[in-house]
Design a protein that fits this description.
The complex is a heterodimer of chains A (103) and B (504).
Chain A (H helix, E strand, L loop, with lengths): L6 H21 L3 H26 L3 H31 L13
Helix pairs in contact in A: 1-2, 2-3
Chain B lengths: L17 H6 L1 H17 L7 H25 L3 E3 L4 E3 L1 H27 L6 H18 L3 H19 L6 H32 L4 H9 L7 H17 L8 H8 L2 H25 L8 H27 L4 H22 L8 H24 L15 H4 L1 H15 L5 H15 L3 H27 L13 H19 L2 H11 L3
Antiparallel strand pairs in B: 1-2
Helix pairs in contact in B: 2-3, 2-5, 3-4, 4-5, 4-11, 4-14, 4-19, 4-20, 5-6, 5-11, 6-7, 6-11, 7-9, 7-10, 8-11, 9-11, 10-13, 11-13, 11-14, 12-13, 12-18, 13-14, 13-17, 13-18, 14-16, 14-17, 14-19, 14-20, 16-18, 16-19, 17-19
Classes of the chains: A mainly alpha (103), B mainly alpha (504).
Chain lengths: 103, 504
C-alpha cells in the first residue's frame, strides 16, 4: 500500500542531506570521506529534482537527473585519480597533510 | 497520477536544419580536432609530439575561423531545442577562448619539453577545457550550463595536477577539485530550486517567471538564485569565495595558470552574465528584484577589490601576486556587472574588459613561462633582478603588460578600465567608482615594483639557462601588439563588444 508523503517533507529531507554533505566537505579531514560528501550533495540535488518533477508533473527534472549522475561519475573518476596521485607523493589521504602551499 | 507527456521534446525537433548545422560548426571543428588528436597521441610508430602540437593549433585556428565567419553573419540561431544558442555573444567568446587555448599551447610546447612533461594529454585536456568554455558561453539551460562547467573544470583539475611527481601540483589540484566540486554542487542545488519554483531549467523561462512576478519573488526562488550566483562567484574567485585561488595558481604549472586566469575567468563571467540577466538582474525589472541582488553583490565587489589589491602588496612570489591581482580584476569586472543594467552600454564594458584582461594576463604568463626555472622555481621578485640585461625584449613586454594591468595609458588595460568606470558613473554608482579608482591606485605600486626589479636592480647569481622558443616569443609579440593596439585604437574592440552584447 502506498502512503502519501507531502512534497515539503521530502524537500526538507533533501536540504538536510545537502547540508550534511556540505558540512562534511568543510569539516572532515579524510579525503575519501570528503569525496563521499560531494557525492552526497549531488545526490541530494538529484532527489530535489525528482521531487519537483513529480510535484510539477514535468519530466524535465527527471531528465536532468540522468545528466547529473553521469557528471558525478566522471567527477569521482577524476577525484579518485587525483587522490591516488597525491597518495604517491604524500603517503597519506588526510587534508591536514595539504599544507605546503599555505606556508 | 499521470505525468504530462513531453510536449517540448519531439523527435523532429532533434533534427538539425542547415543553418543550425552551420551555427554549430565551431563546436564540431573543435570536437573533431580533439578526436583526431586523441587517436594521434596513441599511435605507436612515431613520436606524437609534433603532429599533436600542430594539429591542436590547426584545430584552434579552424575553430576561430569558423566562429569569425559566424560573427560576420551576425545571425542568431537556437539549437538543440533551444538549449543552446549561437549568437554574436557566444561567437565572440568562442574566439576569446580558442585564442587563449591556442596561445597556451604555443607557449607550453618548450616548457613541457623542459619539465619532462611532454605528454599529448596536455593538448587534449586544454582543448577539451576550451570546448567546455565554448558551450558555457552558448548554453541557455542551467543543466547544459552545469555540464559545460564540469567539462571545463574537470579538464583543468587534471591540468593543474599535471606535474604528477610534484607535491605542490598534487595539492593544488586536489584542493581545487574539492572546493570546485562543492561549488558546482551548490550551483546545481540552486538550479534545482529554480526549477521547482519556475517549472523549467531554461534561462528564458526563468526570466519570464521573474517578469510575471513584479511585486515580489518567492523566498525559495531568491535562495535558489543566490545559490547559483554563489557558485559563479566561486568560479570567478570573488571575496569571500577566493581562498582557493592563490594556492591553485601557485601550485599549477605556469602555462596552465595563464590559461586559468584568462580562459576560465572569461568563461565563468560569460555564463555569469547570462544567468544574472535571467535571474532578474536586468533593465526594466522590479525594484524588489534589483534590491535582492544589488546590495550584496555591491559588498562583494568592494571586498573583492580591496582584499585582492591589499594582499597583493605583500606578495613576493610572482604567481601568487598575479593570483591576487586576478582577484582584484574580478572585482573591477563585478563593478561592470553591477553597472550593466543602469548604463546605456549595458554589459559591453565587461566583455571588453575580459578581452583586455585575457590579452595582457596571458602575455604576462607567457613571459613567466619562459623565465621560470625547472619545477617552476625562480619566480620570486628577486629572481627578476636585472632581467633587462639578459632578455631586453621580454623585459619590455613585461613592462607593457604591467602598465596595462595597472591601467596606465596607452594600453588595453586603461581603455577597458575607463569604459567600466564610465558605465558605472552612468549607472549612478559613484561610491563604487571612487573605491575602484582608489584600489586601482594601490595596484600601481605592486605592478611597477616588478619593473623596478627588472630594470633597476643588478642581476643576482648566475643567469639561468635560457629556453626561449620561437613559439613563445611569437606569442609574447602578438600579445604586446594586441595590448598596445587595443589601448591606442580601442574603438574597433569597443564596437565588437557592443555588437556581442546586443544578442543577450
Amino acid at each position: 500500500m502506498m502512503t502519501h508523503v507531502e512534497p515539503w517533507v521530502v524537500l526538507a529531507f533533501c536540504a538536510a542531506i545537502f547540508f550534511i554533505g556540505f558540512a562534511g566537505v568543510l569539516i572532515r579531514r579524510n579525503i575519501l570521506i570528503v569525496l563521499m560528501s560531494i557525492e552526497l550533495m549531488l545526490n541530494a540535488v538529484n532527489l530535489t529534482f525528482v521531487t519537483f518533477s513529480k510535484q510539477l508533473h514535468h519530466l524535465g527534472g527527471q531528465m536532468s537527473v540522468f545528466f547529473i549522475i553521469t557528471v558525478a561519475a566522471a567527477e569521482s573518476a577524476v577525484g579518485l585519480a587525483l587522490v591516488i596521485a597525491m597518495f604517491r607523493t604524500l603517503r597519506g589521504v588526510d587534508t591536514d597533510q595539504i599544507r605546503l602551499l599555505r606556508e | 497520477m499521470i505525468m504530462e507527456p513531453l510536449k517540448t521534446i519531439r523527435p523532429e525537433l532533434l533534427q538539425l536544419t542547415d543553418p543550425q548545422l552551420a551555427a554549430l560548426l565551431p563546436y564540431f571543428v573543435v570536437f573533431g580536432g580533439i578526436a583526431v588528436v586523441i587517436i594521434l597521441s596513441v599511435v605507436r610508430f612515431m613520436k606524437p609530439k609534433w603532429p599533436v602540437f600542430f594539429l591542436s593549433l590547426l584545430t584552434v585556428g579552424f575553430g576561430i575561423g569558423a566562429a569569425l565567419g559566424l560573427l560576420q553573419e551576425g545571425a542568431s540561431e537556437l539549437v538543440f531545442n533551444g538549449m543552446m544558442v549561437s549568437d554574436t555573444y557566444s561567437n565572440f567568446f568562442i574566439i576569446v577562448f580558442l585564442a587563449a587555448a591556442g596561445f597556451t599551447i604555443l607557449s607550453s610546447f618548450r616548457y613541457l619539453d623542459h619539465e619532462n612533461l611532454q605528454h599529448p594529454e596536455y593538448y587534449v585536456l586544454t582543448l577539451f577545457s576550451a570546448l567546455g568554455m565554448m558551450l558555457m558561453a552558448s548554453s541557455l539551460d542551467l543543466i547544459v550550463l552545469f555540464i559545460a562547467l564540469e567539462l571545463m573544470s574537470l579538464a583543468v583539475y587534471v591540468l593543474v595536477g599535471f606535474r604528477r611527481a610534484d607535491r605542490r601540483s598534487n595539492e593544488a589540484a586536489l584542493k581545487y577539485f574539492i572546493l570546485g566540486s562543492a561549488a558546482s554542487a551548490v550551483l546545481l542545488y540552486g538550479a534545482a530550486l529554480l526549477y521547482g519554483m519556475t517549472g523549467s531549467t531554461h534561462i528564458r523561462d526563468i526570466l519570464a517567471f521573474v517578469q510575471s512576478h513584479p511585486a515580489g519573488l518567492p523566498p525559495v526562488y531568491v535562495l535558489g538564485a543566490w545559490l547559483v550566483i554563489v557558485g559563479f562567484l566561486f568560479k570567478v574567485a570573488a571575496v569571500p569565495f577566493h581562498m582557493w585561488m592563490p594556492d591553485v595558481y601557485e601550485g599549477a604549472p605556469v602555462p596552465v595558470t595563464g590559461f586559468m586566469t584568462t580562459g576560465l575567468k572569461a568563461a565563468a563571467f560569460a555564463g555569469f552574465v547570462r544567468v544574472l540577466l535571467a535571474t532578474g538582474y536586468g533593465k526594466g525589472l522590479s525594484e524588489a528584484v534589483q534590491a535582492n541582488f544589488h546590495d550584496l553583490l555591491w559588498v562583494c565587489a568592494v571586498l573583492t577589490m580591496l582584499v585582492g589589491n591589499i594582499v597583493a602588496l605583500t606578495q613576493t612570489n610572482l604567481k601568487r601576486m598575479l593570483a591576487y591581482s586576478s582577484i582584484a580584476h574580478s572585482g573591477y569586472l563585478l563593478v561592470g556587472m553591477l553597472a550593466g543594467p543602469g548604463s546605456e552600454q549595458g554589459y559591453a564594458p565587461v566583455v571588453m574588459y575580459l578581452v583586455a584582461y585575457a590579452v595582457m594576463n596571458l602575455g604576462a604568463f607567457v613571459v613567466l613561462t619562459i623565465i621560470a626555472d625547472r619545477g617552476d622555481s625562480g619566480l620570486n621578485l628577486n629572481d627578476l633582478s636585472g632581467l633587462a640585461r639578459r632578455h631586453p625584449w621580454l623585459s619590455f613586454a613585461m613592462g607593457v603588460f604591467m602598465f596595462s594591468m595597472a591601467g596606465i595609458p596607452p594600453t588595453a588595460g586603461f581603455a577597458a578600465k575607463y569604459l567600466i568606470f564610465y558605465s558605472a558613473i552612468q549607472a549612478n554608482e559613484i561610491s563604487l567608482v571612487i573605491i575602484a579608482v582608489l584600489c586601482s591606485a594601490i595596484s600601481v605600486y605592486y605592478y611597477l615594483r616588478v619593473l623596478v626589479y627588472i630594470y633597476m636592480r643588478d642581476p643576482v647569481g648566475s643567469p639561468a639557462a635560457s629556453r626561449m622558443s620561437v613559439w613563445s616569443v611569437a606569442a609574447v609579440t602578438v600579445m604586446v601588439v594586441l595590448t598596445l593596439q587595443i589601448g591606442i585604437l580601442p574603438a574597433k574592440m569597443v564596437s565588437a563588444a557592443r555588437k556581442a552584447v546586443t544578442s543577450l
